[in-house]
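# nightly structure sweep
# worker-07 picked up a monomer target from the shared queue
# config: single-sequence mode, recycle default, output format = structure tokens
# input follows
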Amino acid sequence: MSNNAAIVELSQTANKFRSSIVLQAENKYIDVKSILGLFTTLVGNLSYELHVHGPDAAEAKAALSDVFAKHSLNVKVVE
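# output follows
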């Protein structure tokens, strides 16, 4: 799988929303709106947790869950 496509799509999707969107990988927290942050983190088969807080959080969670699934990334959306 090319992570580059996943990273670009995740960042573009996240930037459509006003909510704070943070990916937790082990003890690191990455702003999903930052392509650079994703490039340095979205490697290997770690399991990730997605934290979304803000006015459009429900929509953002749904949209990003679709992107993660499409790219076969193991992400748990934290409610």
